[in-house]
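subagent[fold] <- orchestrator: predict structure for attached chain, return tokens only, no commentary.
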Amino acid sequence: MQTTNCPGGVSAGGAMRAGFILAILFFAAYYTYIAFAELNYLSSAGRLGPGFFPRIIGVSLVALCALSLYIDLKHLPAAEAVAPAWRSAAVLALLSGVFIALFEPLGGLASMIVFMAAALWILNPGRALQNALIAVLLPLGIYLVFQLWLNAAMPRGMFPLPF
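subagent[fold] -> orchestrator:
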């Protein structure tokens, strides 16, 4: 497989393939989650239900995508496999997952503040005051737009805010 260098210095061949496989892996994991959470393995009569084949397909997709990603990353040069842009994307994906997990328990506003603070602390180091202001004011503005202007409820969380 021939790779070409992009203006930023990152090779477009192997790293793009690994990124594509990673995206497919996320979709396959979501598909598998739906197959296990929403579809029954057996019908009420005890026969194979609508979730039988989607579960097999989902688990197979996840396993094969994970194996393919492992093989691709194993054969990429070290500088290309974990470039700074990929590291930032992985950190943001992890923080997004934590944000989604905390959205209901902490509530909309608190989880947005935690997400913004963590993301800015990692992506914009050395600017504590600026990061703190953005991490508080931007989610507060979004919260007020949703609550007052759009009249859309956000999760209140375990400790609801007084306003």
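orchestrator: received. Logging for downstream: Residues 1-11 have pLDDT under 50 and may be disordered. Helices lie at 14-38, 52-75, 78-81, 84-106, 108-123, 128-149.
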